[in-house]
Amino acid sequence: MAIIEVDGLTKRYGGRTALDGVSFSVEEGEIFGILGPNGAGKTTAVECLEGLRRPDAGTVRVLGLDPQADARELHQRIGVQLQRTGLPGSIRVREALELYTSFYASPRDPAELLAQWGLEERRNTRVRSLSGGQAQRLYIALALVGAPRVAFLDELTTGLDPQARRATWDLIRRIRDDGVTVVLISHFMDEAEELCDRLAVFDAGRVVATGSPGGLIEEATGGGGRMRFRPAGELDLALLAGVPGVTDVRRSGRHVVVTGRGDFATAVTSVLARNHIVVADLRIDQRTLDDAYLALTGGPSPRD
Ligand SMILES: Nc1ncnc2c1ncn2[C@@H]1O[C@H](COP(=O)(O)OP(=O)(O)OP(=O)(O)O)[C@@H](O)[C@H]1O
């Protein structure tokens, strides 16, 4: 069931068109990514969903509600992640959570959120003294205080080290597993590929593609990739040329390089195994969301 429906959404700032007839839908229970280069309209679109901006044209429904006409009801049912600068640095973790509970008719218990998000030991710490990862967990916890059915999370892992990023990904999956639909704005292709069930790629105020990461990779690049290995004994290249999905086979010194589409690598591996050909130095470079993004927007991914 679609929990968010956007149809023909258009938004102008003066003479500048920020969104030009954007349509997409988000299914209940998924992690939905909104991707695109700077200025593509991602924030504007999410602000229209949150009821913070009034569309010039088109319709938006979140949980069946009109974010403009039903703003009060909607705000009780969605969670919006605060930007880093949104809290005074002197407020303590527990106080911030308690303050947020006052915004909702049926809030969650702050003590339970502290425990769930590993912030119990930091309950009396001032926000300004939290580490990047702890602050991130607090911002997520604050977005969940109202027990929302949809959570909007923006640029979650910017500035976090690789370990904290991975920990944050696990937390986002936990939110989804608890039954909350997650809308995630991200600049990171690896993050979107890893986390999102589906995503929409924005470019210059339009949606240029929607689908699962795997589906978009397949659609935009043909999928597949390249595998390179060194056969231990004799290998007749004709054996691999006929494997489904393989588009090219060639030698490169002592190595063999196979290019293909879709799941060609699995097919090649099983042909090699069936013919008892042992390989060394095996390397497989699959196409990634980065490649799809490049093909869709005509530019490198934003953080390259
Ligand atoms: N308040 C505003 N007034 C005028 N123009 C705006 C305003 N907010 C955004 N814009 C313009 O609208 C376009 C879309 O901006 P938006 O912030 O939605 O893009 P974005 O994809 O979120 O970008 P970023 O990744 O940089 O956050 C941009 O050209 C931007 O300059």
Automatic annotation (TrEMBL):
GO terms for molecular function: ATP binding; ATP hydrolysis activity. One of its GO terms (biological process) is response to antibiotic. GO terms for cellular component: plasma membrane. Pfam families: ABC_tran. Keywords: Antibiotic resistance, ATP-binding, Cell membrane, Membrane, Nucleotide-binding, Translocase, Transport. Residues 4-229 form the ABC transporter domain. The keyword rRNA processing does not apply. It is found in: Cell membrane. It is a peripheral membrane protein. InterPro entries: AAA+_ATPase, ABC_transporter-like_ATP-bd, ABC_transporter_ATP-binding, P-loop_NTPase. Its main location: membrane. This is ABC transporter ATP-binding protein. It comes from Actinomadura montaniterrae.
